[in-house]
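User: I'm curious whether this sequence folds into something compact or stays loose and floppy. Could you predict its structure so I can see for myself?
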Amino acid sequence: MSERTLRIVAGTWKNRRLAIAPGSRPTAERAREAFFDILGAWIVGKRVLELYAGSGAVALESLSRGAVAAVAADRDTRALEHNRGALSAGLEVLRGTARQVARDLAGRGDRFDLVFLDPPYGAGDAIETVEVVPLLADGGRVVWQSDANARIHASPLRETRRAAYGRNVFTFLEVP
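Assistant: Here's the prediction. I'll summarize afterward.
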């Protein structure tokens, strides 16, 4: 585990520190705060899935702000396991690629109100939006974090909002 940390911005675990996995690129605190300001009270009572989770900051911040359940998945779950234990969080941690995890969750019938995707910038093997549609609950949203220069192929979803914070861009997608 790296010596670098980031903090949860608000909610039950406000200012608690999270470990960051070596080599990861976590969502900056200010960008994450702006993202959750957009969501506002909508997140309360929701089910959240974070793919490419790294430290699990988005899933844990969601729980801190009132989400009812969260799942975080990554190929390397060391930071996720550490952070879940440090917070005694009811976070489900899954190991695997985004595609594998999405297929497994769809197969067991899980549905989420928010699916957050933050693949490594420039990743040629990033999951496609069509692969997460079966995971969406009625009225569910997908939010894809990307670099400012990246273009998201939203099909079959519809882009409803795009918010930029420095290099971080959040693209909000919904079923048309």
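Summary: The radius of gyration is 15 Å. The beta strands are 5-7, 17-19, 47-51, 69-74, 91-95, 112-117, 136-147, 158-165, 168-174.
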